[in-house]
Amino acid sequence: xxxxxxxxxxxxxxxxxxxxxxxxxxxxxxxxxxxxxxxxxxxxxxxxxxxxxxxxxxxxxxxxxxxxxxxxxxxxxxxxxxxxxxxxxxxxxxxxxxxxxxxxxxxxxxxxxxxxxxxxxxxxxxxxxxxxxxxxxxxxxxxxxxxxxxxxxxxxxxxxxxxxxxxxxxxxxxxxxxxxxxxxxxxxxxxxxxxxxxxxxxxxxxxxxxxxxxxxxxxxxxxx
Length: 224
Fold this sequence. Notes:
elongated, nine-stranded mixed β-sheet, two-stranded parallel ribbon, alpha/beta
């Protein structure tokens, strides 16, 4: 949105608006009942529970928190696709929502921050008693996602601890026939299959950057 939006009215009627990219403070000004796609630059404030949110199918959050992600189930009941670029540590949006349902969500993209240096991960654990992987697990704990077909996980380096975090997160959620797509720099042909194998216990398929892995390399062969 243009910087001049600061001079606009606090109540902007836009019945034909279907896509919007802005800061949250700007979005509060819009009455957009037919808005379907929303990209929020930052989300440090609470989402107002307004009718203009009800038809949103695509949501992208540049920065939020664990509970902010879970709270989308209350504000966006029609949500089908959610992308989160980054989320903060801890629950900064009030009381935690224990049971969460997004009955229409089909695709979800989240980072798991193994790319943050090990020092910062250890420091976070020492200060708050949590790690980036635990925060990832907390997002899915008690999350009911009956229609989720694809979870895209953005991770800089695929290590056993990151894979275990993904596995534990999905084990704590309710989802069926799920494909996990790992967005990493490593080509699919160079992925260590032994590291990926635990994900097969909670997913239908594992892909790397959209390309299927050769599961024959890690599935057990017939007994002789």
